Amino acid sequence: MPAWTLPQPMQRALELAEASAAAGEVPIGAVVTRHGEVIAEAHNAPRQTHDPTAHAEILAIRRAAEALGDERLTDCELWVTLEPCAMCAGAIVHARIAKLYYAASDPKGGAVEHGARVFDQPQCLHRPEVYSGMGEGRAAEMLRDFFRKRR
């Protein structure tokens, strides 16, 4: 799907992923919206912050919860450039994110359609609506380029 046809939050997540790569971080960006308005955004920052939990999704969720003054983001949507890992999927569950949109699948580290499949577990307290593939080509290419340069 060409960038000009992507919803604005996914376009912004891809821009944040580019900023992440420029900062030397794995290129992943995330945006939280509520009723179509951007509430929070972030890109990966574990290396910058020396914090292994500073994934784009976690940072965006933290910022959204702070901005809204509520740990429950029940009427929010999360837009992210890569399938969330188990840690991020767990945070999505606990935040009660209503909808998750992600660009590229992650067969190695993803935990939504791959690996742990967190939302499919009987112990899962909340299951967001999940949509994947929007912006997948651009997100996947950014990741390939990033890792190619580091080998």
What does this structure look like?
- By secondary structure, this protein is of the alpha/beta class.
- 38% of the residues lie in helices and 20% in strands.
- It is built from 5 helices and 5 strands; from the N terminus they run H-E-E-H-H-E-H-E-E-H.
- A 5-stranded mixed β-sheet has the order 2-1-3-4-5.
- Strand 3, helix 4 and strand 4 form a beta-alpha-beta unit.
- Helix 3 packs parallel to helix 4.
- The protein is globular.
- The relative contact order is 0.17.
- The model has no long low-confidence stretch (mean pLDDT 96).
Task: Describe the strand arrangement of the main beta sheet, using strand numbers.
Answer: 2-1-3-4-5
Low-confidence stretches: none
The fraction of residues in strands falls at: 15-25%
Shape: globular
Q: Tell me the span between the first and last alpha carbons.
A: 29 Å
| Rg calculated over all Cα atoms | 14 Å
- Which structural class fits the helix and strand makeup? alpha/beta
Major sheet: 5 strands, mixed
Helix content: 25-40%
Order of helices and strands: HEEHHEHEEH
Count every beta strand, where a strand is a DSSP E run of 2 or more residues.
5
How many DSSP H or I helices? 5
**What is the average of the pLDDT values?**
96
